[in-house]
Amino acid sequence: MGQVPDKVNRAVFEPLSLIVMKIICVGRNYSEHIEELGNARPDTPVIFLKPDTALLQVGQPFYIPDFSSEIHYEVEVLVKVNRVGKHIDKKFAHKYYEEIGLGIDFTARDLQEDLKSKGLPWERAKAFDGSAVVGTWISKKNFDDLQHLNFSLMRNGSSVQMGNTAQMLWKIDELIEYISKYFTLKTGDIIFTGTPSGVGRVETGDELTGFIEDNEMFKLTIK
Ligand code: MG
Fold first, then answer.
1. What pTM was computed for the model?
2. Where are the domains of the chain?
3. Under CATH, which number does the domain 6-221 receive?
């Protein structure tokens, strides 16, 4: 008899052991993007989370989910956390990441507008499966100044979003200080640092390509 509950517990809890990382996203971190969506400029960073199941790996297509007719791309610079930390002072934040990436925070804008208008959490619009595109990673040592990085998104060969990390309202190290007051950062966690202006809708058949400076960081097809 004693073995039965043991087995049941293992079956229930085993999947949890596969969760090794979380995705922390920053909203409204670029002035022109705040203006294009008609949002208020926040007094503190806007933070939300995506689960590990939101991750869309390099080489995978993105499938438009049937619960939205307005999926928007949001290209964002990513930071990969490389050690555990809590209450990290911004002076020491640079010690907590070694690699920089680029990704897309896919957003069901129609659903988000509905949730926002009701004052409800955004998760169904932001944290669904495949909503976090994560491209390849580059050592930060390849860049002279992380707060002056040009990055861009091309849609079907045309540039649709162009940003520079100098335009961030809160810089990477300030974000790490702020986020780590609330959430312990762990090795492998990924921070999405916010999108510049130019967000827009994707259509089936689109090809999206992301760049940091001249480095192609991801390419994906919309299905
Ligand atoms: Mg975003």
1. 0.91
2. 6-221
3. 3.90.850.10
